[in-house]
Amino acid sequence: MPSTIDSGVMNAINGSAGAARAAAASGGGADLQDSFMTLLVTQLRNQDPMNPMENAEMTSQLAQINTVSGIQDLNATLESITGQIDAGQAIQASGLIGKGVLVPGQRVLVGEDGSTTPFGVELEQSADEVNITIRNESGEVVRRFESFAMDAGVESFTWNGEMDNGETAPKGAYTVSVEASADGESLDTVQLNYALVNGVSLDQEGAPRLDLGGISEQVTLADIRQIL
Length: 228
Known about the structure:
This protein has helices spanning 19-45, 55-94; strands spanning 3-5, 100-104, 107-110, 119-123, 127-135, 141-144, 148-150, 153-158, 172-182, 185-187, 189-196, 199-202, 208-211, 226-227. The protein has 228 residues and is of the alpha+beta class.
């Protein structure tokens, strides 16, 4: 079994934003309510005296005004909450710059001195047997670890760079594959590889995306399984 690395802890940071947008949305609701009321008053003034508006119809139209106002207020609240979430995530993401993380991927890098990058395994349920195999760029198996049991969740590991033949693995990129089972039934697994957060950018919706410097494509905070 490869060595286990203690996981880091991500602190949730609450941000605040969107107050101006909420105020603007609220103002739009007031304008719409005024328009509704103007139309209703005009309708009452010009109604046929011999066929006046029924009380039920009046109540219905007043209810429509309240409904429109309520929807506008709800939209303003949701927009404010979305702005706060985006701001909080942006602050949270910026705090990860310069830190190592585990994200979905299968790659392990070996340096000239045999040092390696960490990797990880994610399981939805506990496994009786977990088997980890490392292959070189040609697909040849260079290391098989002894099977071990693992609880549901994420665990990170290190490989000492030693191959099955006792030699140190040459510098380069290697691939990790994981097989897990419980009571003889195969389980779904997610392989994780190490990446360094180099920067943060915002997508078209304003959500932060992390630049991992080519080790992996840009990811969101939800893609990060562990901070190392």
